[in-house]
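ok trying this again, last paste got cut off
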Amino acid sequence: MTVVFPERFNMADYFLYHNLEEGRENKVCLYFEDRTWTYGETARLSNRAGNALREVGADIEDRVLIVLPDCPEFVWTWFGAARIGAVITMVNPLLPASDYEYYLEYTRARVAVVHQSMFKTFSEVAQRSRYLRGVLVVGEEEGDGIVPQAATLNFQKAIETALDECTPADTRRDDIAIWLFTSGSTGHPKGAVHLQHDLPYNTEVFAKATMGVNADDLTVSVPKLFFGYATGTNLLFPFAVGGATALFSERSTAEKMFEVIKRYRPTILTTVPTMINSMLNVPGASPDDLASLRFCYSAGEALPIELYERWMNAYGVDICDGIGSAEMFHIYITNRPGDIKPGSLGRLVEGYEAKIVDADAKEVPTGEVGTLKIKGDSAALCYWNAHEKSKETFAGDWCTSGDQFHVDADGYYWYHGRTDDMLKVSGVFVAPAEIENCLLQHEAILECAVVGNESDGLVKPKAFVVLREGFDGSEQLSDEIKQFVKSRIAVYKYPRWVEFVSSLPKNDRGKIDRKKLKGN
């Protein structure tokens, strides 16, 4: 599939402002609490936000740091920053001060937009920033912790006095537009530097051509908008086709998701395997509760076949499991409505190329496991300020994913874990995901994670297990679980240790934080 964008190009026009030209000014595009906003209102408020950002010191190519929960102000800031040609950076609004200090220093952000609930924490480190020129605070007027070297304004007051019209920056399709942060599984998160055309490219080939997102769709999401996965599925994709999104700022819980779905009746749900598991354990839930949905996205980590089958038996709504990355912006291999092979991550999205290679970078035969390399026009330019890592990951046109896969004879891709997570047991590489999928079939196990544990100089699998209600951890149950695994997969893969825990640590993307488990 060939997709070409004009030389002069701004992604804000592609995602938002085109809707005005196509007659959708009065169509509702945004739901939040008891309010709605049309495309016309969203465009005007985004213009005002762009003007306010300029007023406090943001200009073309300057980084703007967005530190907001899911709310309308996030939307207006995102499109306002894109409109003026600023470089968007987005982070979790629930981080400790040390993380904000890292992001401010790493991005050298000129302007930050922060929520009042964490402004005091943020301002403690913002005072030491050498680059910050302005801070816009969303919420009621904040009196404490004013950043001395930067203009600190109330967001609402700033946009009330700003003009409705905002002169767009004269950007090109190859100008830098946004940084998407990696999950930071090893060290600090890195910024994958994306150009103006990158996000629209994936929208064309994945959202539109592959998933069939359209103007009748209304989306909701478990992950929050600062995470590129949700930025795409729950804001950019529906806006690109004239659809709508519903946002909520509260923490995503299974009960909250049923409440939001009942209230807004979305057609597409963005979710992750952890939430799929949680929603399956809500008492009294029925297929009627999810009747408005036509499909769910799942990404972030592979969806165990056991969870997929339980979900389909309980609710009957297709889950389209796929894989994407900050480096490529979004999903490039996926199951899709009407074409789902449970347990796999589906087929390659047309518009991308893939190959699976061995340690010598040679392609492996069909059916053999190797490292996935991906090619497509949404690939990042580099990691910011990480030259050697950029050369390692972005080699020519090919991006090395760091994920272990095999592809079957029908073109479906099967995930075997991150390269860094693979375990060498009895001289053979073992994927923790294979052991986890087996463990989840045991009636007592609600959640689990497998990591390597060293004993007498050898690495063996160790399982951390969260039990279902009604089961108690014991040596007897531990032995039973080990035997269960031995009876279903190769004996050498069984977990030598089973540790019962009340919960598994998660990072801000909802993925299991294996670094913390490995430290146990």
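PB: full thing came through this time. Residues 422-518 form a domain with the GMP Synthetase; Chain A, domain 3 fold (CATH 3.30.300.30).
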